[in-house]
Amino acid sequence: MSPPAITPTQPAPATSRVQNGCLAALSPAAFALLRPYLVEVTMMEGTVVWEQGSLPDDAIFPISALISIVVPFRAGESIEVASIGSEAAICPQFAPTSHGAPTRGCVYVGGRSLRIPAMQLLAAAERSREIARLLEICRDWMLSQSQQIAACNAVHSAEQRLCRWLIQSHQRLAGAGLHATQESIGSALGIRRTTVTLLAQNLQTKGLIQYRRGKITISDPAGIGDMACECCTVLSREHWPATRLHEPHSA
Known about the structure:
Strand content: 15-25%
Strand order of the largest sheet: 1-2-8-4
Number of helices: 10
CATH architecture of the largest domain: Sandwich
Mean pLDDT: 87
Structural class: alpha+beta
Order of helices and strands: EHHEEEEEEEHHHEHHEEHHH
CATH topology of the largest domain: Jelly Rolls
CATH class of the largest domain: Mainly Beta
Radius of gyration: 18 Å
């Protein structure tokens, strides 16, 4: 497929490394295997990174961008099964078969990312156990999200799911405001736009969020967390790849 609509810059500066949690966890020797091939790019909101049935040519390490992974349906609907921010990475290796991914990847929040040809990343993983472990943990993270969110969509209320989605986005974006329409939120969560409107109004009335001109700012993260479902615990920071890579492991 064609590469995503991006604005390329120069090869990644050294400071970019620390802005993606997975790259920041690598030793200097392991990162040195990747650095010559990393390019910093700006990814625009709405960009399709890969289409259903295809594979991206590059692996992506988000910095300030947030990528939503959705399952599209013939009638035009889609539902989010995972999202990736600066806590992780996306690689074509994560697709279950060589025939392509059953999902579509879209840039939900525009921003900066580091891009590397997938072949170079996989070659580095063969030379470095650290990089191989990074890919394993990021793949596990996508699988864990998809399983937990599938259960969440089946069991928990629309309000709980919305609060879970809000707190997850808030954490990944380090508290920055989130630009999102009620329609796009409803599509991600599989709920009606009118339901999102009512729920957002209720949260705003309680002083938990501010929602103006398509920008959501969480005023009370603890309050939103209390209203969210238990899935927030399973998908919390302690389970992020960026956190797990700092844990001791066998050589």
